[in-house]
Amino acid sequence: MAVALAVFEADLLYKLQEQNLFMRTPLFFQQRMVVAGGLLTWAGSYLTQYFYYPMLGAGLLCLLWAFFVWLQGRVLGCWQVVRLVPVACLLLTIATLGYWTYYLKLPGHAFVATLGSVSAVGLAGIGSWLGRRSRWAGLAFLVLTLCGGYPLLGFYALWAAALMMVLAWRRERRAGATAVVVAVGLIGIIGVPLACYQYVYHTTPLEHIYWAALPVYCRPGQSYPLYYLPYALLVASTLLMAALKPVSLRQWGQRGVVAATLMVVALCWHQDDNLHRELSMSRSMWQADWAGMLKTAAGTKGEPTRLICLMRNLALFRTGQQAAAAAKYPDGGQRPQAPFSTRAVHTEGKMLYLQYGLPNYCYRWCMEDGVEYGWTVEKLKLMTMCSLINGEHVAAQRFVNMLKKTDFHQAWAKRYEAYIHNPRLAADDPLLAGIPPLLRTDNFLTADRAQLELFLIEHILSTTGETRELQDLATFTMNYYRHNRHQLFEE
After folding, report:
1. From CA 477, how far away is CA 482, in angstroms rounded?
2. Which residue, 65, 201, 216, 452, is most buried by CB atoms nearer than 10 A?
3. Alpha-carbon distance 28 to 139, whole Å?
4. Is residue 439 left, alpha or beta, with left meaning phi > 0 and alpha meaning psi from -120 to 50?
5. What is the CB-side half-sphere exposure of residue 324 using CA atoms within 13 A?
6. Residues 198-253 pLDDT 10s
7. What letters, b where the CB count within 10 A reaches 16 and e where it falls short, cover 207-246?
8. For residue range 348-393, what is the model confidence (pLDDT) as tens digits?
9. What is d(CA 163, CA 238) in angstroms, rounded to the nearest whole number?
């Protein structure tokens, strides 16, 4: 299953690590620990960075899932094929992301569910082992899991306690002994999060206190509960396996379980050709591979999104082609396949602003999204480039210093640090070289109303041709929209 992620979702995995941040500093660890489940998000952020090489990150997921399958057998004693069901749920937590990739606020969410599941079943196994030797030892470990585990694991500590209660019910023959374990467990599951909310975690909303370390699928004024279904099935399947003693399944039954699991995964997998092409073109754009962007845009199946068209037009302009060349590529205004309204400024629009000579707008949206959704490697890189373009070398050095504390982006940080000390070197950088000729002499920042395309049109066509490149850009833009007025702008 992890191999399928690496094969079909390589660009998504790469984007996940770009939308992630892990720094090897005590302060970073302390910042993660200010909320319940902080240890999981810290470890998840660490592992997510390995998606820099998608196959390597998927390999780590594969190893964790294989260990989880083995652990279920040891702790829950379930049928071998049924153990694939929780793993399929973990796969779907990533495969159903879609545009949530840009909007989820839980750090390291791609690995958090897997690490939390392994921790929950592992703790339940330890508690069950202790309970078989001493009822009081098992009870003490249940209390320790709730009181000590919740700050570290959040919701997954509550899940572990629930598994201990179910395993104790299956193990104990005396109703009185089981009742004590269940009573202590229920009191802890309800009371420990409330106590932590009251005395420890003041920044976590009360409605989220029981779901700490789970992603929040909501947008302003709207929630999307269907995205919690893989998590619900994950918990329910393990609780059911803990409650029932395994029975032998015939070969046809085992094949039926595997076939049904694979069918559900295939049906629920987020299959959006436009999103895949946006992610691929974004990756090419960061590498200044304009030809690769055009190749991806040319293969679009059906009507493309406006973001694909915008990135394609940038590639056409960078390769010196005329606006008429856009007619060779699919054009359109397909709405993104997301249950909520998406904005290009929250996805790939920041880089487009920078490439069109508007570093202030790129910086502004990096700052706003950093505060709203969390700081990421991609935002820090963009803010570094914006600061360099604006001659703000102190700010650029600050962002470079942060990137130098990561594991996979130190080389990028050191290269751009050289530009700080010798700005002339930036003229040879493929991402920065084409930006200065598009800059206006005045330093300004106005409201763009989150309407990237419309604002770019107004800006480019209202800018006097101070350089030949600005004149060419204005001509390109005017000719393109003169023949494409029927296309839809971003709503």
Report:
1. 8
2. 452
3. 35
4. beta
5. 0
6. 999 988 888 899 999 999 999 988 999 999 999 999 999 999 999 887 766 677 77
7. ebbbbbbbbbbeeeeeeeeebbebbebbbebbbebbeeee
8. 999 999 999 999 999 999 999 999 999 999 999 999 999 999 999 9
9. 8
